[in-house]
Amino acid sequence: MTARPLFQPIDTNHADMEEGAPPADRVISGNPTFRTWNVEEAEGGLYAGIWEATPGKWRIEYDEWEFCHIISGVSVITEEGGPAITVRAGNSFVLRPGFKGTWEVIEKTRKEYVIRV
């Protein structure tokens, strides 16, 4: 078995790309699709990588903790009962377990993420 390097760049050159989309019953508008490069998957439910989505709006519910850093694009995240927050390149934020709301991609959005289940 080959040892994994202890330094792992977070970029699309170091992971297989997975394609997906939100479940159809969560889509509010558009036809959003996802591309994900999961670079790290560690014991205990830790994930890190890059995620990209095309325009559309869907409902989200978080059971996990996630740190996000927007690399490019523009999205609007709205927590149930809260204000709409526009995020764009350079913005970083945390979504905590129990978060419910919507994610709307205005311009194709790419983010770096770290998820703790």
Count of discrete structural domains: 1
Order of helices and strands: EEEEEEEEE
CATH hierarchy: architecture? Sandwich
The quaternary state of the protein chains shown equals single chain
Distance between the termini: 27 Å
Query: Which fold does the CATH topology refer to?
Result: Jelly Rolls
Question: Helix/strand/pairing class, anyone?
Answer: mainly beta
Enumerate how many helices there are, as a single number.
0
Pfam families: Cupin_3
Region (Disordered): 1-29
InterPro entries: RmlC-like_jellyroll, RmlC_Cupin_sf, UGlyAH_Cupin_dom
Domain (S)-ureidoglycine aminohydrolase cupin: 41-113
Topology overview:
Elements: E1 17-20, E2 27-30, E3 34-42, E4 46-53, E5 56-61, E6 65-79, E7 84-88, E8 92-95, E9 100-116
Antiparallel strand pairs: 1-3, 2-5, 3-4, 4-9, 5-9, 6-7, 6-8, 6-9
InterPro entries: RmlC-like_jellyroll (IPR014710), RmlC_Cupin_sf (IPR011051), UGlyAH_Cupin_dom (IPR008579)
Pfam families: Cupin_3
Domain (S)-ureidoglycine aminohydrolase cupin: 41-113
